[in-house]
Records
---
Amino acid sequence: MPQVLAYVTDDEQCQFHRTTIDRRDPGPTEVYFEIKYAGICHSDIHTARAEWGQPLYPLVPGHEIAGIVTQVGDQVTRFAVGDRVGVGCFVDSCGECEQCRAGTEQFCTSREAPTVWTYNSIGRDGLPTAGGYSQGITVEQDYVCRIPDAIPFEAAAPLLCAGITLYSPLNRWDAGPGKRVAIVGMGGLGHMGVQIAAKMGAEVVVISQTMSKREDGLKFGASDYFAMDDPDRLKQLRGSLDLIVSTVSANINLDGLLRLLKPHGVLVDVGLPQHASTLRLGSLTSGNKVLAGSNIGGIPETQEMLDFCAEHQIAPQTEMITGEDITAAYDKVVNSQVRYRYVIDTSTF
Ligand code: NAP
Ligand code: ZN
């Protein structure tokens, strides 16, 4: 049984420290891969800080994982030793229900074998799952994606959550030529959304808290940049947007955002703030607007997103950190100081 180094938090104070965890030997259809890089998603922080309820401590977060296969079970057909692979937010599901068959395994409806999340979940072996802040992981081959050669390895990890979380709603709601799309919040998710929507052919604007990241937003492909701290200028956008994707991790004024949509426009939320949000329903009825949500993406769409990013040379802008940096990194993410995704180099453990 492989034992690997990992960074763990024992409670919601999130003082990460090094430990050793067990990984199971790969079963017949499983692969074991050495994790090289793991992104820090804001969802790791919400979870580890118990903002969404009490998680299973000790907790090893991390669901943006990139590594190299070093062992395969004897019935593995899709991967070989040496392959560059990635794992995102889930590592198992029933594989048989309507949702799994449709490739949206994150919505598996099975009671007996529902979606197993990469961490803070109970795996089929009956043990708590542990995520990417570790040096290796064993995963069923159907929940592993291939990282195309054109994607720099150091940049691949954040695509497995931030990338797919923006690709999926932009794809579903037809971001493309002739569409005016706003990305709200330019953090880890948002900066991927700007790049992906621009490469899909949409006109993209960013709505951020301040103008401080404007230069970067334009570099990522936005045509204009707006700030919530300048509401007068933001009014220029009223009634002009086909699609808004909000990635904001805190509560914001949803009525204000809905006013920026054209009639029939769509506001998709992917941000998951700790507290409940409110809106006036009149903000929706006035103009037949749509308020939608979106939760990561299934395995087929995640592979499609990776191939799209490879084809269009889309990559996250990352800051590489060590295991000892994780604790401090959490505060910096919450304070919007990261540019734009922290990636943990697991060789530093
Ligand atoms: P992040 O890097 O911290 O980015 C969040 C951005 O939200 C910040 O960069 C900031 O944008 C904006 N923001 C933060 N506090 C704000 C406030 N008080 N008012 C207005 N804007 C504020 O986080 P992330 O990793 O991108 O994740 C974003 C959210 O999506 C989190 O809630 C996370 O849990 C959730 N998430 C959802 C899914 C899904 O499948 N639905 C997947 C992954 C993550 P500016 O700096 O531009 O102002
Ligand atoms: Zn995530």
---
Amino acid sequence: MANNPDFDLYQLSDEHSELRAAVRALAQAKIAPRAAEIDETGEFPWDVYEALAASGFHAISIPEEYEGSGGDNLAACIVVEEVAGVCGSSSLIPAVNKLGTTPLLVGGDEAIKSRYLPEVARGEAMFSYALSEPEAGSDAASMRSRAVRDGDGWILNGNKRWITNAGISKYYTVMASTDPDKGPKGISAFVVHADDPGFSLGAPERKLGIKGSPTRELYFDNVKLPADRMIGAEGTGWNTAMKALDVTRVGIGAQAVGLAQGALDAAVAYAKERSQFGKAIADFQGIQFMLADMAIEVEAARQLVYRAAAVSERGEASATYFGAAAKCFASDVAMRVTTDAVQVFGGYGYVKDYPVERFMRDAKITQIYEGTNQIQRMVVARNLLKGGAATGAGLA
Ligand code: CAA
């Protein structure tokens, strides 16, 4: 699990394989039996959080010097993939902790890392990421949240939208403009605490899927932030936010692979047990071809996600390109595969007696959050046109 830049992309190391087996065992025992209920009630699964935290799977990427497990980005992807294979909502626990803390790892100094990361590693706090605003989604740099100087510190005003695990997290990485004349270079990143005076939350959004992970607005009304809440130097927040997404979009790809694999497994099992016209529907070539296409796509997505994880772990120049490509491809695969899984189940797929409609609803968001797939294609194309190291050209 430790950072191993030399691992073979086509075969997991023993450590990664053991990690997969351990997360799968936990997911089967403690999360799968709860998944339908989590979706039905829309309540955050604190029992799942505790089970993940007890094994260190809730935030596996926090380095050992901050009391974490020191897992690399592939380890983080494996955790998210295996949890998503049974419950999309629960997979947002490790995914969002990673999204919230990566800006500190990417752009923060020693003081801010040692102040916050151990608490997350110990399972005592969760961390969300706040970039989007009502009028600044894909065009994130047009944000209006504003922090103005107040002595040594800052006063923050504005709001953020679509914030995953809002209200559950104790800490929020918040991007705000400290110099609107400078555009992206005038954006800075801060840590906001849930109990900061002036901080409040909107009502939970009523969503299609990932219902056990609350999504809410954040409001900042003259929130006073001491100087030591800034992540990195003034004006580096945009770079930090983008570099963090380069790493964490791979995790959304992993979530998509997990959802697709979960749906595929259910469809294969159902095709063998469901009988029509006097034989199992798995005996019909029409079903076989569907299952074959689903399986091929899931494995292709997995390979791209793992390669992207390796590239980002090594800090290669193509991390932006691969992160966007993996997220885009895997989430499109997840949407197709989960939709086809519902089709294999026929009418039974459309009702809640089986998990495939939940996988399909949960898959949709993977094409949208951490940047829509239209934005991912834009990012891929821009890097492709730059060429060279930006696309990993020349590397096998
Ligand atoms: N790393 C470092 N710097 C980067 C970067 C990256 N990956 N991508 C862009 N930049 C830099 C550029 O180099 C440029 O800097 P210079 O001017 O010095 O060259 C600057 O940022 C502006 O870049 P662009 O000119 O490309 O800006 P743009 O506005 O045309 O496009 C974008 C930027 C890629 C579209 C960006 O706005 C983007 O990624 N949008 C999507 C936002 C997003 O992913 N939101 C999801 C939020 S997370 C979430 O979903 C919430 C949740 O809880 C799950």
